[in-house]
Amino acid sequence: MALQNIGESNRNDAFYRYKMPKMLTKTEGKGNGIKTNIINNVEIAKALGRPPSYTTKYFGCELGAQSKFDEKTGTSLVNGAHTTPKLASLLEVFIKKYVQCYGCGNPETEIIITKTQMVNLKCAACGFISEVDMRDKLTTFILKNPPEAKKGSKDKKAMRRAEKERLKEGEAADEEQRKLKKEAKKKASTNGKDASSSKTSKNHTSDEDISPKHDEIAQEVDDDEDDDDIQWQTDTSREAAEKRMKEQLSAATAELVMLTAREEEEKKVPKGLANGDVKTEKPLEKLVQEMKEHLKKGSPISELKNFISSRSDPPQDVMDALFTALFDGVGKGFAKEVTKKKNYLVAATQEDGSQMHLLNSIESFCGKNGNEEAVKEVALVLKALYDQDIIEEEFVLEWYQKGLTGVDKSSPVWKKVQPFVEWLQSAESESEEED
């Protein structure tokens, strides 16, 4: 069965994991009794996590035609002759309105009907609640025919197992694309053999240039050995002794002056702040300023990795400075800004432990700085970074557990990221059960 990615925006993503069958239609009947049969509507609806009656009714509402879904036979009929591309375009609109999360775009949502008879979508990934436009005709049908209440996690697991089965069918196409890329790389490597030969000749010349340096080092060693023959003597005359005494007294006086200056500086330190706190605060502000200046230069992102690795500051301070320099003053729209500047974060998370540093910087930026608008979107930020393979599941779970038991366990960040973490944990437990 041919598969395609769910959502128009993900059409060209070869590694997108949410897929559905391509629509198949058939025109039946003649004259006034002509109808369009959506042959695989049940499979499509199952992939979207929606009742097939919803998609059938939506087609009828948008086309102004009568529609009917037979529960026993699974037949979906829409009166009139309608082309497959036309129905497929309507299905994309349905996905955007009634399937995809309005926050992160994830199609793993659940329809919820509120006490005030409003249709909402709850995202299992980021926890965002999307409010559906109640002026749409399909909302009336949904209120009259609400989705069946899920019995528990078993239903979710069954849906994900079915989804993974469909993914396996699409892996063959992905494997073919990878083979083509490997063949292209092999061709490029054969063309680069001539260039490698020129590099080897350069290396020979560089070896010749190194030899004079060895001669210089040998001369320095010889000079040091010559110094061993010199006999050193101390002038014990009265005049020389008086001169050395004066130098020692001046050094002691200077040390006393420096000691009194340090005591005066310590007195100026505000009460409640240790000397270590003052010393660590100024370098961090300076590091943020240096990071901003580096970003303002417009240097390629590839140079950012070299700039970070050249710093002698603690890795966590460097990551905090980079995150502050990139998103200083950002509140509402935090998730969009992170998505725009994701390449900077990719360059900064190449070393071991850098993913945990990034997660700590996110918590510090949102929680410790009291950025309420950023806190609201922190789950969307983690979802975006997870989808882009910038942060991995194991580090997110470890970071979350440390946060709940750490000093800042009362931070509002942990409450906001809880739905995303639970989503990761449920996916992990299902994969273990399948194994």
UniProtKB/TrEMBL annotation:
Residues 274-434 form the W2 domain. The keyword Acyltransferase does not apply. Residues 189-200 have a biased composition (Polar residues). Keywords: GTP-binding, Initiation factor, Nucleotide-binding, Protein biosynthesis. One of its GO terms (cellular component) is cytosol. Residues 146-214 are annotated as: Disordered. GO terms for molecular function: eukaryotic initiation factor eIF2 binding; GDP-dissociation inhibitor activity; GTP binding; translation initiation factor activity. The keyword Magnesium does not apply. Residues 147-178, 204-214 have a biased composition (Basic and acidic residues). GO terms for biological process: formation of cytoplasmic translation initiation complex. Residues 179-188 have a biased composition (Basic residues). InterPro entries: ARM-type_fold, IF2/IF5, Transl_init_fac_IF2/IF5_dom, Transl_init_fac_IF2/IF5_N, Transl_init_fac_IF2/IF5_Zn-bd, W2_domain. PANTHER family: EUKARYOTIC TRANSLATION INITIATION FACTOR, EUKARYOTIC TRANSLATION INITIATION FACTOR 5-2-RELATED. Catalyzes the hydrolysis of GTP bound to the 40S ribosomal initiation complex (40S.mRNA.Met-tRNA[F].eIF-2.GTP) with the subsequent joining of a 60S ribosomal subunit resulting in the release of eIF-2 and the guanine nucleotide. The subsequent joining of a 60S ribosomal subunit results in the formation of a functional 80S initiation complex (80S.mRNA.Met-tRNA[F]). Belongs to the eIF-2-beta/eIF-5 family. This is W2 domain-containing protein.
